[in-house]
Amino acid sequence: MNAAVEPILGRYLTLKVGDLTHRIYFEEAGAGRPVVLLHTAGADTRQWRFILNDREFTASRRFIAFDMPWHGKSFPPQGFETVEYLLTTEAYLQTVLAFCDALALEKPLLVGCSMGGRIALQLAALEAERFCGFIAIEASDFQPAWYDIDWFDRPDAHGGAMGAALVSANIAPQAPDTERWNTLWMFMQSGPGVFRGDLSFYTRDDSLIGRLSRIDTRKTPVHVMCGEYDLTCTPQDALRTARAIPGATIAVMTELGHFPMSEHPEAFRPHFVDALSRMPG
Amino acid sequence: MGVDRQLLRSKLDRMATALSASAHLGRIGALFSETVLIDVEGAEFYLAFEKGRLVSIAEGPSLKTPWRFGLRVKHDALRKFWEEVPRPGYHDIFGLVKYGHARIDGDILVLVKNLRFFKEFMAFGRVGEVP
After folding, report:
1. Residues A57-90: pLDDT tens digits?
2. How confident is the model over A149-180, as pLDDT tens digits?
3. Looking at the domain assignment, is residue B121 inside a domain?
């Protein structure tokens, strides 16, 4: 038999965030202390597929990943057809909190990558009591764009294909081809303007810089992780960010890039084991 | 180490041959008919692409050859870019740019619209001798 059913379960929930109602898709696996996983810009929960399928991880923790509105299998809100999607820090914060409330998650561990890591650090500064700890992967205080975000939403070109070609710069050469291309496929599938709208949040909002010193790692630990091949959040960016958070720990990961859990899960795994060991069980 | 134009030229010729043998890049590059300048510390090569194939390489310097976009790159950085497993920062043309080893001139939007095609073409240099 060649078929293998994975233990991941996918469901939908309806979430009200501000004036907007979202139909949110989420996946989960495991039982125990909840861990909420936040995907990068321009992608979706599939980035976490190897974590959710890892029975050693899920034996003692409940891992939950959701697609942000506009991403993956979560619809954009009603009326999207006339809206310019631009993610804001406030909307992102409220969406994560509303999702945790909707599932009645008690002090989950928050894990985010890239823009997900950025918002995890924002929550560490602003809403720490709601969580038990934070793992911020490929996350930093701020990055101005080294590209033009408008490239990725044009009527005369495929924004997803261009976005994938751009972010391929962030994948380490050691990544196995299958997972490299699976990682890029998510960007190729991203809806028109979504990657651009995410990048607007990521490259224009520098409000985290002044908030990092508020984070109290004695109450909620913070662990920062960064792949050495990441051109978007470089190890220098991650180190600068971790140093601004008293008590934060950091791991610079060799042979990995900006999507470590997705591009090269085998190489990422020991780093993630280490990260989890630093968090409340 | 100075730039050996002959070695670079033979490398580009081999990359052109590899491109010709690539079915998927022929498909992805089907709309790419542009001249691209590769400038390695003053050693200029004008690469004429036609429908995703590299049909001619003219050596400069030339002030009368139009080109759509150009990659101006330091020789040592290009050598590192073409290593079989490049080091961090040398693994992508935008890494070279970000860390100040290269610059892209001209119509960068044309490059971005054909980014996968051009990156995979440049990566053909990772096979064989590094000039």
Report:
1. 999 999 999 999 999 999 999 999 999 999 999 9
2. 999 999 999 999 999 999 999 999 999 999 99
3. yes
**Intervals of chain B under pLDDT 70:** 1, 129-131
Nearest CA-CA distance, residue B95 and chain A, Å:
6
Quote the distance between the C-alpha of residue A47 and its chain's center.
Answer: 9
pTM of the model: 0.96
Structure tokens at B114: 């054909």
Contacts of B116 in chain A (CB under 8 A): 161, 164-165, 168
Query: Which residue of B lies nearest to A158 if distances are taken between CA atoms?
Result: B113
Question: Per the domain annotation, does B67 fall within a domain?
Answer: yes
Residue at B130 is within a domain: no
> Domain for residue A55, yes or no?
yes
State whether ipTM is beyond 0.90: yes
**Measured in Å, how far apart are chain B's first and last C-alpha atoms?**
10
Nearest by Cα to A227 from B71, B91, B51, B7: B91
Confirm whether B99 is domain-assigned.
yes
Q: Which residues of A lie inside 8 Å of B (Cβ-Cβ)?
A: 146-147, 151, 157, 161-162, 164-166, 168-169, 172-174, 228-229, 231
